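Write out this protein's structure.
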Amino acid sequence: MTLPLTDAEKGILLCIARESLAAAVEGSTLPRLELNALPEALRAEGASFVTLTVGGALRGCIGTLEAYQPLALDVELRAAEAALEDPRFSPVLPAELPHIQIEVSRLTYPVPLAYQTPDELITALRPGIDGVVLRDGLHRATFLPQVWAQLPEPGQFLDQLCYKMGAQPALWREGHPQVLTYQVEEFHE
């Protein structure tokens, strides 16, 4: 990740996410972003996750691990997807909009984590700092660093990540899935 975003840049991204969320939920076209009018950091390619909560409870979360479009466009798209396409939840309804809080996570590029044994893997992870990607064949899942707050014990964290991936929780102990880590710059309304 390059330099941290300024408070003004974070505010712009939160506004973009809020406008995208409202447009998506109300069935409108997403607002057209004037990229040239945005700060350079928001025009640069960036990967993001947008998390929606209501009263602290998860309501939707969608993102991407690889940067392929301007960060501002990525946040706009992820906000709409979090509202309508998270398969764990029904689509957000217009009446819910005033109650939804938005969190944006800007990701660093995921890098492979070398390990030989399950104990080495647990030791190498940095709870609260590392987002983790597990890959096994065609299956892949990730938890943002924020998930450590709910799953602070590394073994439990990895068990749940395997479960999210659709694998047996013991996969990380009995197999040798590829592990990548990344960090985030997180901010919210």
